[in-house]
Give the backbone structure.
Amino acid sequence: MPRYPRRPARLRALSFSVALCLSCRLMAQDAPAYDFDLPAAPLSTSLMRIASTSGHLLSVDPAVLEHRQAAPVHGHYSGVAAAEAALAGSGLALQTTADGAWTVGPAAAVPSHAAPPKAPAPGPAARTSTRTLEGMQVYGSYESGYAASTSRAGTKTDASLLETPEAISVVTRSQMDAQGVQNVPQALRYAPGILTAQRGFSQDGGGQEEMYVRGFLVDQYLDGLRLPSRSVASYGASAVDPYALERVELVHGPASVLYGQSSPGGLVNLVSKTPTDTPLHEVGIQTGSYARKQLQFDMSDALSDSVDYRLVGLGRSSNTQVDHVQDKRVLLAPSVRWRATDATVLTVVAGYQHDPDAGYYNTLPYVGTGKPAPFGRISSHLDPGDPDFDEHRRTQYWLGYRLEHAFNDSWKFVQSARYMDNRDTLQSVFANGWAWNDGSLDNHTLGRYALAMHEATRTLTADNQLQGHFDTGSATHEVLVGVDYQRTLYRQGYGYNWFGVPGLDVLAPAYGAAIDVPENTADQHTRLSQSGIYAQDLIRWGHWRALVAGREDWAKADTTDSIAGTAVDQSKHKFTTHLGLTYVTDIGLAPYLSYATSFQPQATASLEGGGTPAPTTGKQYELGVKYQPVGKQSFMSLAAYHLVQQNVLTTDPLTLLQYVTGEVRSRGIEAEAHAQITDSLAVIGSYTWLQQLNTRTREPDELDKRSIGIPRNTAALWLDYHFQEGALQGLGVSLGGRYVGGSYGDAANTFTTPSYAVLDAGMRYERQGWDYSLTVSNLSDRRYVASCLYSQSACNFGSRRSVLLGANYRW
């Protein structure tokens, strides 16, 4: 069957192609009517859904739909009548081309419809001029701009954010480009409820990507499948370059009902770039602070009538904020989409990422960073390690696929699977607080130790879903039933050299001393597996939306240490739920409430006297409201929650034995706005108030104390203005600010790191296929401490000013 011809067009950062048709045949004389229940949404989204339901081909100039909002569509309409209802008040009207396809143009060109048409009376459906169309599939793309209207992460379906009864934040490709993000935490630093700089510069310098949501460390997922993370690996957790991503989705709160064992705080889902419907060709260069050099490319086109490809790649070499530490990366991410039949589509996604210099991991003492030492403050450029000894390299590759098969208009099967291999080698000298000489504290010499660690993580994940859409009386059901499986093999060998490493004088650092590489004192093999069965029903009736979901999980783990001769085995199972209720109004306002639970096995822990601890469990109540105003490509949300994590491990500071006695309570308010104020001005804003306390613990001096490194208040604001006409047409300027409140640096809350605020800025200019960009993080070059973790010996400097200058050419 011939494909619908590709429409040549220059792709711009804030435009997209809309082309969608699902398999069906329409009678030339009679157009059937359908039940529609669509809230106010971006016009592109509503028209795509209407075309999908009614089987029409939709081909629209991207500039026509940009920043326009659809009116709500509720009732029994023909496809044309529903599309006209969505266009009401937009200044646009539906047209039919000579080929019988739908397009959209100014209302003055054709008769306008000032109000949504009434649903046709029972009986023969309304006539239209649409001719019979051959069955075919042409796939659309995510929304452009800063405001998303759908997300797959919250329900594992392309559900409307407005209808989903939980807080979800989405960072679009447009936002990542405008803000010049260089890693996943940077992409989320303007979102609410998340801390992205706990490790300070080490995250921006290629190191660990630790993110805390609602006060809890969360895992990353790629295309809905879990990545090797800090909950399993140490330094070898995955870190996917954001240039390979289409968007980043943040689910706030427990998500175990769909994803199995996971943090009660939520999860971060990364969405890969996959083949586009129109040709895409982009090459770019980047330079900037610390002698940065980067080349990148993004290509997508057709290989045949049924096969499309996309190839994303980059190469980077850069120094960093810390002397002697480099950040180098090679990325290659190919993907292929095959339309095997009208009903079957297979998308294969692969990736290879090699970091020969994988960044910075060190820490420094609080005295000298957070507050002055007798000599003053330590330089934020100081390398506390040793360049002649230190090395860190990481390699990861993955191969996966997503298979979709539609049995009919109501039911389809989706299978996703991926194999991933991570290898990480770290050999480094670490600072260990101030040294002691002759029984007294040395005020300018750091104590140090050496660590050698090798990690290898292999994971296989698979998710099988049956998705259905049907009616029972006046209610519409969107049902999801699934079975998933995860298997992880993790090996870690490490050794320490605590006493053979000389100290470092921060006033006159000297490197190159002979340091012995530590021998392995542990060789651990961990095998983890999880299988789960889940079911979910999103019910729509009238203005109401109800979400009912449940899951049963089985998790197994065993860890052996061939050197220590120890073994830890555990097998756990748990039932989790998610219940929610939303009321969607015609003006785009949607209050909701929800209840969700989670569980997370403590795979490698052991208790005093033997045995293994019970999984941590989470329970959350959330109340919120979302708003998607009619006529604007905007989305706003406000959420309040009460979240409790139980069965938390606490450690005796003297014996270092672990006990399941802890409980942590997190309460908070999160506000977020992605607003297109005018055609020229876009705004992103967020605010978080969070109170996280240890409500049960073995240590009396830690009871009712705030969690380490978790501030009470955070806020962010980003303004983006694009000139639409005149001599400055094509120019965009941006200004942003981020505030992070002070936090405690130890469990007993004996000291704090101060609050800080930084400014970011950007400038973009588009002309004749060229896109020039200038982005600056920490515009004023503010020096600050991002956090201290566990003690006054482990503090992290934040990132200093970073300037990036780029040029991309698209054709």
In short: The radius of gyration is 27 Å.
